[in-house]
Specification:
alpha/beta, 4 helices, globular
C-alpha cells in the first residue's frame, strides 16, 4: 500500500490463499499464490524485498529460493533480505520452520545466488 502511494508498481506472493486475498484487497496490487520454490512470474523487477520470510525456508532449500528471486530481478536489481541470527534451524511443533544462521553464512548463500552484496548490517 505504501509503495503504491509513492507511485511504485509492486507484486507480491504468499503460499496462503487467505493472506493473498487480504494483501490484494489492502494494496490494490497483484499478489500471487506461490512459495519460494514455485514462484514464476513473467515480469522482472528492480528490487525484491524478503523481510521476515526467507527464515521460513529450510536451509537446504535456501539456495534455490534465492536463485528464484534473483531470476526475477533486472540486471543490477536489488534483493533485500533479513534473517535471524543463530546457529540452527528449528521446526516448531506447529509446523513453522525457522532458519537461523550466522551472518557470514547468509552472505555466502546470497552471493552464491548471483547477488552482489551492497550493504550488510547486523542487528
Amino acid at each position: 500500500e505504501a509503495f503504491k502511494h509513492m507511485g511504485y508498481y509492486c507484486e507480491g506472493f504468499d503460499p496462503c490463499p487467505q493472506l493473498v486475498k487480504k494483501a490484494k484487497a489492502r494494496s490494490g496490487q497483484q499478489v500471487h499464490i506461490a512459495d519460494f520454490a514455485s514462484i514464476h512470474l513473467p515480469s522482472r523487477f528492480n528490487g525484491a524485498m524478503c523481510l521476515a520470510s526467507l527464515y521460513h525456508v529450510p536451509r537446504v532449500r535456501l539456495p534455490a529460493a534465492l536463485q528464484k528471486l534473483s531470476d526475477h530481478l533486472e540486471r543490477d536489481g536489488v534483493l533485500l533480505v533479513t534473517m535471524p541470527l543463530g546457529q540452527q534451524d528449528v521446526l516448531h511443533p506447529d509446523g513453522c520452520w525457522v532458519n537461523n544462521m550466522p551472518l557470514e553464512e547468509l552472505v555466502q548463500f546470497v552471493e552464491a545466488a548471483g547477488s552482489c552484496l551492497l550493504a550488510l548490517r547486523q542487528a
